[in-house]
Structure formats: C-alpha cells, structure tokens
Amino acid sequence: MAGVDKRADFEDLLPVMANKLGGEGLINELCNGFQLLMDKDRGVITMESLKRNAAFLGLQDLSEDELAGMVKEGDLDGDGVLNQMEFCVLMFRLSPELMQESRFWLEEELKGYGF
C-alpha cells in the first residue's frame, strides 16, 4: 500500500532531521511544512488544501481515504481541520523513534528534579 510506504519513509527521516537540525530547527521545519499544506485563507490544513498540496511533501500517491485518515488522526479538537499545533503533534506521533527519544530526555530532565 502506498500510504504505508510513505509513512515508513517519514518515520525514518524525522529523527534524522531532529538530530541534524536540533529541536528548534525541527520545529521550524514542521512549521514550514504546515505553511505549505494549509489553506491560506483559513490558516488551517483542510482536506482540500491537503489534497491540493500533498505533492510538496511527497504524499501525492496517497489516496483520498488515506489523506482523510491523516486529518482525522491529527484532529484533536474535532473541527475537521488541522491547526498548526495539531499538525506538529501528528508529525511527532507518526515517528515512534522520535517520541521514544523525547521521552528519554524528559525522564532524564525530571530525574534532576527528584522525579
């Protein structure tokens, strides 16, 4: 399935980007990705803007159902669109390796506070 392959490629690249760019650089790149995909008039990623702009991120082979699934998975407030925060959270959730590394650093930091 094309969507599975694209997701696997993304999962492999996000940690590499994080290591190369650092935390702030990665967040800036995610914000740039959001800007590419969003509906310029509404300031959010809609299903229509995602379909229209998916090729910018190499997602042109995903079906409409797969794109709708991405929006649904990331839509935390249930409004049917992705705001910038929801998009960034979704990108991190799609990368288990990055989430595991983030958890490690959070636990290390909390140890310093006696947790």
Automatic annotation (TrEMBL):
Gene Ontology terms for molecular function: calcium ion binding
Pfam families referenced in this protein's UniProt entry, alphabetically: EF-hand_8
Domain EF-hand per the UniProt entry, residue ranges: 62-97
PROSITE patterns membership: EF_HAND_1, EF_HAND_2
Gene3D superfamilies named among the record's database cross-references: EF-hand
Keywords from the named record: Calcium
The protein's name: EF-hand domain-containing protein
Species in which this protein is naturally found: Salix dunnii
